[in-house]
TrEMBL record:
Domain tRNA-specific 2-thiouridylase MnmA-like central intervals: 202-269
InterPro entries: MnmA-like, MnmA-like_C, MnmA-like_central, MnmA-like_central_sf, Rossmann-like_a/b/a_fold
Reaction(s) catalysed by this chain's protein: S-sulfanyl-L-cysteinyl-[protein] + uridine(34) in tRNA + AH2 + ATP = 2-thiouridine(34) in tRNA + L-cysteinyl-[protein] + A + AMP + diphosphate + H(+)
Record gene name: mnmA
Name under which the protein is recorded: tRNA-specific 2-thiouridylase MnmA
PANTHER family: MITOCHONDRIAL TRNA-SPECIFIC 2-THIOURIDYLASE 1 (PTHR11933:SF5), TRNA 5-METHYLAMINOMETHYL-2-THIOURIDYLATE -METHYLTRANSFERASE (PTHR11933)
NCBIfam families: PRK00143.1, trmU
Region: Interaction with tRNA, residue numbers: 143-145
EC assignment: 2.8.1.13
Organism name: Jatrophihabitans cynanchi
Annotated localization: Cytoplasm
Length: 353
């Protein structure tokens, strides 16, 4: 096959491209330039898509002996990822920008362009498996990325290759070293690449503007604090609330809900976060047909952890998940991903819990 290898400059995408070459594919490497001002992105151990990463990707392509290009997708990234991130926080939701980047950039903008140019598939270094068009968890549970890929459509998965799903991260690094790839020991990227200093609240304040509002106790209705913008909080948050006084029993308070129209943050005892019912919308089903009756499965509610057995009911593009184990801190805007064992059945965007 003629395949396009998306090369971030990290060790995973480097080894994925190398394995595609070994498999006999006609491989071309491409690095995505996602910022009109690369210096504003994070650098070093916490970087992603910086000039340093582009150079690392080019060096890897040279070692592999494959053509290499840089595609400027900065405007598409701004519109589909950064602006979406801001809109979601302004609406009181908690988005996952990496999930949106996979959906809108790597498997929409890139894949569409790749197919138009005559490529058959896009290769990435994601830790996940594809079998018979169905997405499965990686054998490395700690690095599994099926959650952030579950939003992809059947068509997108049909034209995707994930060569690393059967390997652990340690095996990938060891292979990179054996191949003489300079990125073998390069640290993984972390956090949000377009927030250079890692200060998400500061970034949101600069972009959305500060606006003072009350922090209200859920049980008494009393105002017990002030904030500079409800966008700076997420459901389940405990730290940084700056409340005027502790709860009567001395127990910690958590963010229970965010009301953007009134600019109000509601806090209360941790037990009030427990939920056994989650609603979601914009469902995508790739591991099965849209269920016509309730199904028993596992659901994951955040990129890291929060897995629970559940009974799921589907109605059009909406999903209702009744959890077998109460979960705390379920936030609107995150993905609800449904699994049969380690196979993704589908995903939807959480609207209420």
């Amino acid at each position: 096959m003629k395949v396009l290898a998306a090369m971030s400059g990290g060790v995973d995408s480097a080894v994925a491209a190398a394995r595609a070459v070994d498999a006999g594919h006609d491989v071309t490497g491409v690095h995505l330039a996602l910022s009109a001002a690369p210096a504003t992105l994070r650098h070093g151990a916490r970087g992603c898509c910086t000039v340093e990463d582009a150079n690392d990707a080019r060096r890897t392509a040279d070692v592999l002996g494959i053509p290499f290009y840089i595609w400027d997708l900065a405007e598409r990234f701004r519109a589909d990822v950064i602006e979406d991130f801001l809109d979601e926080y302004a609406a009181g939701r908690t988005p996952n920008p990496c999930l949106r980047c996979n959906e809108k950039i790597k498997f929409a903008a890139v894949l569409d362009r790749a197919l138009a140019l005559g490529f058959d598939a896009v290769v990435t270094g994601h830790h996940a498996r594809l079998e018979g068009g169905r997405l499965r968890r990686s054998v490395d549970a700690g690095k599994d990325q099926s959650y952030v890929l579950a939003v992809l459509s059947a068509r997108q998965l049909e034209h995707a290759l994930f060569p690393l799903g059967d390997s652990t991260k340690e095996q990938v690094r060891a292979e990179a070293a054996r191949r003489g790839l300079a990125v073998a020991d390069k640290p993984d990227s972390h956090d949000i690449c377009f927030i250079a200093d890692g200060d998400t609240r500061g970034f949101l304040a600069r972009k959305l503007g500060e606006r003072a509002g009350p922090i209200v106790d859920a049980e008494t209705g009393e105002t017990i604090g002030q904030h500079d913008g409800s966008f700076g909080f997420t459901v389940g948050q405990r730290r940084g609330l700056n409340l005027r006084r502790p709860a009567p029993g001395g127990e910690p308070r958590y963010v229970l809900s965010i009301e953007p129209k009134s600019n109000t943050v509601v806090v209360g005892r941790g037990e009030l976060l427990d939920t056994t019912e989650v609603r979601a919308a914009r469902a995508v089903w790739t591991g099965c047909a849209v269920p016509q009756a309730p199904i028993a499965c596992l659901v994951q509610l955040r990129a890291h952890g929060m897995v629970s057995p559940a009974t799921v009911r589907a109605s059009g593009e909406e999903v209702l998940a009744e959890l077998g184990t109460p979960q705390r801190g379920v936030a609107a805007g995150q993905a609800l991903v449904m699994y049969d064992g380690d196979t993704v059945l589908g995903s939807a965007t959480i609207t209420a819990a």
